[in-house]
Structure prediction request, 225 residues.
Amino acid sequence: MSGIKAWAVLLSVAVFGSFVVACGGGAADSNSASKAATSSAAPSASDVVPEIEVPALWAWGDAQDLRTLTVTADAVFKGTVVSLKGERPQAPNAAGDAPGAPAPRWADLPVSQFEVRIESVVSGSLLTDTAVYEQIGGLETTPDGTRVRIMLERDEPVHVGQTYLFFGSFQDDGSVVAPPFGRMKVRPDGSLATEAGWEHIGVPADLSRRTLGDAEREISAASRE
Prediction:
């Protein structure tokens, strides 16, 4: 099974044994440690799961213009998240094919797998009515039994029942991945919304001012240029 496409360079690593977040820089150290301590504090209600957000630098250059984001995606499609199928550990040799290659810093993070119902394909092709969408992050249990949710910075977990416009890439096993800047929420009225943290970035900001129909026409035209 292939590893998740690396759009993000992590600034810290969640260590499963202690869930300590360690960063390379001095100022980042204190900020991340504070965030980790706050995120892993006891929840105020039994149904609240504490969150640990892993700081990340995103390589979002492809999202500076619509044509680039479109042609670098294997498929652009509208789909609704039907269910959370489960989780898997990140591939142990995701850094490269060579045996003994250093693993990327996100290699130990869980990967959530969602079933997505394909509703329309704007660019590229999908041969099935459903797809497995993978996203780094998920639930883990600390040594003391506390359940915590691990997620990458500016990569809000997709929501079951929500419809999205995905700029997706295929993995070797047929599953689909998409960065947070290549994923737009489709509102009931047909307008589009960016994921949190991407409101002022290139294509996400531009598409948030479009309806789904207008966006689909522009993406289709961009794929033919």
